[in-house]
Amino acid sequence: MEHFERDLAAFKRKLLLMAGHAENSVARAVQALVERNSQRAAQVEEEDAVLDRLEIEIDEMGIQLLAKAPLASNLRLITAGMKISHDLERIGDEATTIARRVLDLNQNLPASSFHEIPQIAEIAIGMLRESLDAFVNRNSSKARQIIPRDKQVDALNKQVQRELAQSIAENPESLTRSLNLMTISKALERVADHATNIAEDVVYLDEALDIRHSGKLAG
Amino acid sequence: MEHFERDLAAFKRKLLLMAGHAENSVARAVQALVERNSQRAAQVEEEDAVLDRLEIEIDEMGIQLLAKAPLASNLRLITAGMKISHDLERIGDEATTIARRVLDLNQNLPASSFHEIPQIAEIAIGMLRESLDAFVNRNSSKARQIIPRDKQVDALNKQVQRELAQSIAENPESLTRSLNLMTISKALERVADHATNIAEDVVYLDEALDIRHSGKLAG
After folding, report:
1. Cβ atoms < 10 Å from Cβ of A119
2. Do B179 and A165 touch (CB under 8 A)?
3. Distance between CA atoms of B197 and B26, rounded to whole angstroms?
4. Are the beta carbons of B205 and B140 closer than 8 angstroms?
5. How far apart are CA B14 and CA B54, in angstroms?
6. A72 contacts in chain B (CB < 8 Å)
């Protein structure tokens, strides 16, 4: 039993390590965009392999833990952890998408302003950080507060898509640049989707336990 | 034990039901595009809720099964099933994206040809169907054959993106139409990504079992 608790703590630690990497990747990709820093963008691409490896390791630990889990609540926690790790891996993929577009953008002259993109990034990264906090602290009311922000990100992304389409229409030379920025904005919108998935997992985890505790799920 | 086997069989059946829905959604969304059938596109959007519900049900069944799983190989199978159901749910989201773009496209005059998109759809849907077959039949060599096709889809999608960007540059009036087709092509490329995830899960499932059987994973 003590052995199990220790392994479960190690599982959570590894998940947090992965979460830190995922968050850094997104933050770095956006930094690379804002600062036109191609080296930083290349770094994001390289680090994606770390997230891929961590996902496999977390899956392995999860399977080992499941074989020894004594309580239904632990089963739920472990499978939620495995799902979250999958979302974090996908966030890494989105960061890589952003980084590649930044590398392409940086081959040209300084781009005009696109202040909504850092704004979307800030909300998306905040949602990611808080959803992980909510998971760690098993705080479903905090997780619930994160979910509606996804709509805000969707709206901002739509606005960016519209503005960039407008800019292509008015200035066809901006085509490649605008398409790259569209992809970056969309990738950030997907980061927010994944953060929402994580927040929903936390709510579900908590509610299912509540229901189970209240005996409604008996049988 | 017999009870467990029966429940495991029901879990697999539900997963196959979900897989059928996901495959139909993508096929219908593409059909709606090719036939300019808005009613069909609207149907895809409505049916997405079915996939969302099935994912939750499969998760629930998975958790219940995990609590009773007697063998490590079963734990692996169940967690792989839960991961696959997550990928299927995302495929439904991509189908919905396609359907929404089709609805937008259909508000305008007939579009010119874009024969690569049905071609991408055919490969992606084939990958999805075969990866599920490989899962059901536990056929990892078949699953392995699916994975390289993802590169083919990536290349076709890149070609479509390039051609459509070209068409915007040459004919700015095609902007909205081209952006919609770009999104559709990208969504199909993501369907192929999810099918690849499923194929990789099948390979992993099989290999981990092989390793375990050969005693390398002892300890």
Report:
1. 15
2. yes
3. 17
4. yes
5. 8
6. 63, 67
Rg of chain B over all Cα atoms, to the nearest angstrom = 20
Three state DSSP letters for B45-79: HHHHHHHHHHHHHHHHHHHHHHCCCCCHHHHHHHH
CA-based nearest residue in chain A for residue B174: A169
Distances from the Cα of B97 to the Cαs of A79, B29, B48, B127, B159, in angstroms? 28, 9, 11, 19, 20
Write out the two tokens for B51.
């996939």
CA distance B3 to chain A (A): 14
Here the ipTM equals 0.78
- Summarised one tens digit per residue, pLDDT across range B84-119 is 998 999 999 999 999 989 888 888 766 655 778 999
CA of A71 vs chain B CAs: smallest distance (Å): 8
Task: State whether A82 and B79 contact (CB < 8 Å).
Answer: yes
CB B204 within 8 A of CB B138: no
- Average pLDDT over every residue of A152-171: 93
Distance CA B127, CA B119 (A): 12
Chain B residue whose CA is closest to A174:
B169
DSSP A113: -
Contact: B172, A176; criterion CB under 8 Å = no
* Per-chain mean pLDDT for chain A: 87
Determine the distance in angstroms separating the CA of A163 from the nearest CA of chain B, rounded to an integer: 13
Q: How far is A74 from chain B (nearest CA, A)?
A: 10
The pTM (predicted TM-score) of the whole model is 0.84
Tell me the chain A residues in contact with residue B168 when contact means C-beta distances shorter than 8 Å.
168, 172, 175
CB A153 within 8 A of CB A120: yes
